[in-house]
Structure formats: structure tokens, C-alpha cells
Amino acid sequence: MKKPGLVIVDLDGTVVAHGAGDTSLTAAAEPSPAVIEALAAVQAAGVPVAIATGRAIWGALRTARSLGLTRGLISAAHGAVTYDLAAGAVVDSHMIDPSLAVKSLAAADVRTAFAVELGTVGWRHTADFARDFHSDWADVVDVATLAATSTPRLAARLPGGSRYGAGLRCPLAGKLANDAALDPGMYCVEVGFNGWIDIGPAGVTKATGAEAIARHHGVSAADTVVFGDAANDLPMFGWAGHAVAMGQAVDEVKAAAHEVAPAVGDDGVATVLRRWFR
């Protein structure tokens, strides 16, 4: 690929190790100096840097600040929320009515706990939703109140799920998603880790989030390079002119990329970007 006109990076597993983000079970990790310097070199060359992440916006902002990003856009919640760093505000969001999804998931497994993104404030959640990770929290509500909350993302979680590892999905969460059989015409479903499922607007993915970023900057998909490591990055990989998978990604993700970088722990993003920006 020629020198890109836009660089879009995933966060967890790409610029920081897994376990560093909004659903982290540990304290947030920091990006390496090499990655921070590489992204600074991109911006110094006049090329915009953006983020496309599955995290909620408040979790994404923490790492954006650590990366030294003060302008440009963040696509959060798997493409459902777009945030302008310079303006300090959400500039676009795609919302769902979570009520039918809550009903279907609860019927599939009565142990399911729920949370929804509440603006930029934090998670609105049921009392049984485990707060065992670093995040921002809004309020505790009953299921009926939560189900009536318009939101860009509903999170459903089962106890005893598998921990995240190398981009693998939790089998308990996968079974819950299959049993609930949510209508794909209404919802986009992402099976995650630790018993976790994300439910967002139908047709909204990291690809649509990346497209909104590119349109904002007047850059084509063909001139955009994207970095990611997990299954939720696959739509974005299919959209971009050049997709880079991290070295620790599973084979499915690597196969969809144009290039495989060194692993996140080996500063793969910095290694690739130095080809064009120094």
C-alpha cells in the first residue's frame, strides 16, 4: 500500500494488551512509548489518526488521552457512537430499543444480567450485573427500567463465563446468543468474553464506524489502513484498503487481513507505521 491518508486503530489487543479496557478485570494498562511515538509521527505528517473500538466511549477516551490524541474521531460501541475529540462531544449515535432483546435473553437464561450505555455517563445496570471491571457506572435500576432505556448498546452477561484469550469468544455467551435467537433485522450481536454479549443496532459495525470517520476526513476506504485483532474487526477489515491483523490474533482474523503485524506486546502497530511515517 502507498502512504495511507487515514490510520484507524482498534484499542484492546492492538495498541494496549487485552485486559486494559472498559471490560477489564484489572487496572487499565497503558500503550507503549513506541506506539505513542508512531501515532504522533502519523499526525505530524498531516495524516489523521482515529480509533474504532468495541469499548464504551468513556473507556475509549481514557486510552485516547494516553495515546496523545486530542483531535479526530473515536468510533465506539462497535460503530454505534461517534465522538469528536476536539469538540469533546458525541456527534452521531445509533440507538436501539433493548426491550425485546432483554425479554428474549432473560427467557433463554434467567441468570442473565444486563447493562446499557447511558450517554457518556456510564453503565446503567441491573443489581446482578457484576461490576468486576474498571469502568464508569451510572445507576442501578430494575429490568423494566433498563429495558425502556434507549441506548446504543445493551450488554448481557452470564456468571461463570470464560476469560478473554487470543480473540476467542466465550462458549457460554455464544450459547445464550444462539438460544435467544435475536432478530438480525433489529439487532447486531457480538459474542465476547467472560459470559458477555453486546447487542447493538442492526447493520452497525466497526465498518460503518470507520466509514463515518473516513467521510469526515474526506478520505476513501482505499486510502485507509486499519489495525485490529478480533472478530469484531472483520467488517472493518473488509472495508479498508489495507487491513493489518496483530500477530496474536486467531487464524480467522489473520486470514482476513492484508498483512500480519507483530503482536501487541511487540509493538506491532508501531512496526507497520514506521514503514510510512518516521
Automatic annotation (TrEMBL):
InterPro entries linked: HAD-like_sf, HAD_sf
Coiled coil: none
SUPFAM superfamilies according to UniProt: HAD-like
Name of one Pfam family that matches: Hydrolase_3
Gene Ontology cellular component annotations, sorted alphabetically: cytosol
Molecular functions per Gene Ontology: magnesium ion binding; phosphatase activity
PANTHER family: HAD SUPERFAMILY HYDROLASE-LIKE, TYPE 3 (PTHR10000:SF8), PHOSPHOSERINE PHOSPHATASE (PTHR10000)
Protein name: HAD superfamily hydrolase (TIGR01484 family)
Species name: Stackebrandtia albiflava
